[in-house]
């Protein structure tokens, strides 16, 4: 077993890896030292060890460092274990049972919401959003819960024209300005809702799950029967409270941090 004195070195090495992973391209050792407030000698030692073990790659002509093959292999192994779904499933199970509504875990896939996990309450309900189903992100509560926390430029890139706005029931945002207004409201509110935007007679409440960089990585949703002739403006705060609690717990489980604002 290593001594307790090894722990700070391990933490510094992991900080270097996180920095390399968060950059779009290779960075210099001087930049690493400056951003992490490390002595240059320590930085070069850490980069040398990471390079030797395959977690970093040195580009001698550029005098820069990037992620190595071992980091890719580790990331691939992580994905094979389906950690997000495994950590979310018991939370969704409890949420569905407690609220007697269908609970989902969804992620953004381009301009669509992709559903990874669905948990039924004790009395099963038939709804359109099953595992593997993709739905227009601007219409779904789960999609907008995540879109509310990405940059305006990313939203514009996903929805570049009016043709990008699929219509299913006549409800929901039909253009970029309307979507942006709705995202602003839902970001301030802390959760997203949809009332018959996807399927007439059903509504949903969703809250985002964040990664360690405060980026929206997924959303937890409750879907339930709700019939009204026109959008009635309900936001279901009591349901949202439970959904947000589950989303916050999943954020904590994956080592994430909720967006600061």
From TrEMBL:
PROSITE patterns: HTH_ICLR (PS51077), ICLR_ED (PS51078). Residues 70-256 form the IclR-ED domain. InterPro entries: GAF-like_dom_sf, HTH_MetabolicPath_Reg, Tscrpt_reg_IclR_C, Tscrpt_reg_IclR_N, WH-like_DNA-bd_sf, WH_DNA-bd_sf. Keywords: DNA-binding, Transcription, Transcription regulation. Residues 7-69 form the HTH iclR-type domain. PANTHER family: HELIX-TURN-HELIX TRANSCRIPTIONAL REGULATOR, ICLR FAMILY, HTH-TYPE TRANSCRIPTIONAL REPRESSOR ALLR. This is IclR family transcriptional regulator.
